[in-house]
Specification:
alpha+beta, Immunoglobulin-like, four-stranded antiparallel beta sheet, 42% strand
Length: 309
C-alpha cells in the first residue's frame, strides 16, 4: 500500500499488509475493518464486516471498537446500525450488539468521522478492541432475588416478610413488588413500586396477618414484576403457638390397673427377698455367695426400716 504526504509535499511511504487465512474449522467471529480517507471532504469512513464462520448460529455478538481520543462524540455519524459510544477502562469505545448471526452469515456496520487525521500512524494502531460472543439475556436474568426472611406469625396473628433484590443491569428500571399469601391471610402493602439501581440491593418488607389457621406452616411467594418480565421466590411462614406446660405423671403413661399390678409386683419381689434372706441366714452353709447375701441384707434393712417408721 502506497501512502502519499499531504499539503503538496513530495514525501511518499509504503506499508505492507498481510492478510492471513483462517482454518476451515475456525468457529470465532471474523472481522474485516476498512478505513477510507476523503482528503477533499476531510472525512474518514470506517467499515467493519463481521462473519460467522461456524456451523452454529451466534445469538449475541458484541463488537467493541476503540476510537482515537482526539475524535469527539459529535464527529461520529452512524451510517447503518447505531452503536453506543462509551468508555471502557479509560478508553473511548463504540459498542455494537449483533443478534442471531446464522452460520456463514456476514454483517456490515459502518460510521463516518467528520475529521481528517494527518498522522497515518493513528490508523496503524486503530484496530477492533475485541469481539465477544454471548447468550441472549432477558431483564429477568438481570434481577436476582437474593433471599427472603420471615419473622413468623406470633400469637397476635401478625408477622413480617422481607425480601432483597439485586439488579445487575446497566440502566435503572422500575418494578412492582408484591407478596402472594394463602387464602385467609392478608399482606400490607398490597404492592410497592421500586426503582432498581444497577449493582445496588433493594429491599421490601410486607406485614402479614391471619386470624384462624390450623396449620403450623404456610408458603408465601415474593413476586417482582417489570414491563417485560416477572420473577419470584417462595418461602415458608411459621405460625408460632404457645406451648402447653410440660408435666409428667405416671398416670399419663399407665392406667390405674397397670399401676396396681406394678405395685403388687414390687411388693412381692421385696417379700421374696426378705424370706430368702431369712432362710439363708438360718442355715449353717449359705446357698448364696457373700455378695448376694449382702445385697439381700440391704433390701431387708430398707423394708424393716420403712415398717418401723
Amino acid at each position: 500500500m502506497q501512502l502519499h504526504a499531504n499539503g503538496g509535499a513530495n514525501s511518499t511511504d509504503f506499508l505492507a499488509l498481510r492478510v492471513r487465512n483462517y482454518p476451515e474449522d475456525y468457529d470465532k467471529p471474523i472481522a474485516l475493518k476498512t478505513i477510507k480517507i476523503d482528503e477533499k471532504e476531510r472525512t474518514t469512513l470506517v467499515s467493519i464486516d463481521v462473519k460467522n464462520p461456524s456451523l452454529n448460529t451466534m445469538e449475541v455478538v458484541q463488537v467493541q471498537e476503540r476510537i482515537p481520543a482526539l475524535v469527539s462524540d459529535e464527529q461520529i455519524e452512524f451510517l447503518d446500525k447505531q452503536g453506543k459510544i462509551t468508555e471502557l477502562n479509560g478508553a473511548k469505545m463504540i459498542v455494537w450488539e449483533l443478534s442471531d448471526i446464522k452460520s456463514k452469515e456476514s454483517f456490515h456496520i459502518s460510521y463516518n468521522i467528520k475529521n481528517f487525521i494527518t498522522d497515518y500512524s493513528t490508523y496503524m494502531n486503530w484496530h477492533i478492541s475485541q469481539i465477544v460472543v454471548t447468550q441472549k439475556t432477558t431483564t429477568a436474568d438481570l434481577v436476582k432475588i437474593l433471599d427472603m426472611t420471615s419473622s413468623g406469625i406470633n400469637e397476635t396473628g401478625y408477622g413480617e416478610v422481607t425480601a432483597s433484590v439485586l439488579y445487575v443491569g446497566t440502566e435503572p428500571i422500575e418494578v412492582t413488588m408484591l407478596l402472594e399469601v394463602p387464602q385467609g391471610f392478608s399482606a400490607e402493602p398490597a404492592a410497592v413500586t421500586k426503582t432498581l439501581i444497577p449493582k445496588v440491593i433493594t429491599s421490601a418488607t410486607f406485614r402479614i396477618s391471619t386470624q384462624k389457621t390450623t396449620q403450623d406452616t404456610h408458603m408465601v411467594r415474593f413476586v417482582v414484576l417489570g414491563n417485560d418480565f416477572s420473577t419470584y421466590m417462595a418461602a415458608p411462614v411459621i405460625i408460632k403457638r404457645e406451648a402447653p406446660p410440660v408435666s409428667f405423671s405416671i398416670l399419663s403413661v399407665f392406667g390405674l390397673n397397670e399401676i396396681i399390678i406394678i405395685s403388687s409386683f414390687v411388693a412381692a419381689t421385696v417379700t421374696i427377698s426378705v424370706i430368702s434372706y431369712r432362710r439363708i441366714s438360718r442355715r449353717r452353709a449359705p446357698e448364696y455367695s457373700p455378695e448376694r447375701l449382702n445385697y439381700l441384707k440391704s433390701i431387708r434393712g430398707m423394708v424393716v426400716g420403712k415398717n418401723k417408721k
